[in-house]
Amino acid sequence: MPFFDVPLNLSHAGRVARRILLALPPTVGGGGTGAGALAEELDALLDPCRDEDDNPPPAEAERVREKAAALARRLVDAIEREGLGHDRLGQCVRNLFECLGLGREGSVISLRAGEDPRSLQRPV
Questions:
Q1: By Cβ atoms counted within 10 A, which residue in 35, 43, 78, 122 is the most buried?
Q2: CA-wise closest residue to 39 among 57, 55, 26
Q3: H or E element, residue 107
């Protein structure tokens, strides 16, 4: 499956995490392990990176990347379980994984979050 292979960019990943949070219905709040809570946790994790020009030092960047990817996987599970997926949300999930340097995984997991496989935004 085609994917965009981009280098780790935690600053942009932080902006995409905020888009994911905003793409969820406003009634999906925090608390527990639901999509809203996981999106809030992901947003909070990446918030310190959002306004930086560069990634943190390599060891810290790898720690943040791994934690963000694990949270994003759980978030997609919750989106799927709660029936919240839609094309724009799936595109944001794919973009997040691309920014984490995990474009191959993002091209697959985004479909579970609702991205239309025929979307013009998908890599060809």
A1: 35
A2: 26
A3: helix 103-112
Question: What type of residue sits at position 98?
Answer: E
- Render 45-103 in DSSP notation, one character per residue: HHHHHHT-SS---HHHHHHHHHHHHHHHHHHHHHHHHHT---HHHHHHHHHHHHHTT-H
**pTM greater than 0.70 (yes/no):** yes
Tokens of 21: 């949070």
- The C-alpha atoms of residue 109 and residue 98 are separated, in whole angstroms, by 11
- Yes or no: say if 24 and 36 are a contact pair by the CB < 8 Å rule: yes
Q: What is the pLDDT of residues 44-100, one digit of tens each?
A: 999 999 999 999 999 999 999 999 999 999 999 999 999 999 999 999 999 999 999
Q: Give the tokens for residue 123.
A: 């890599």
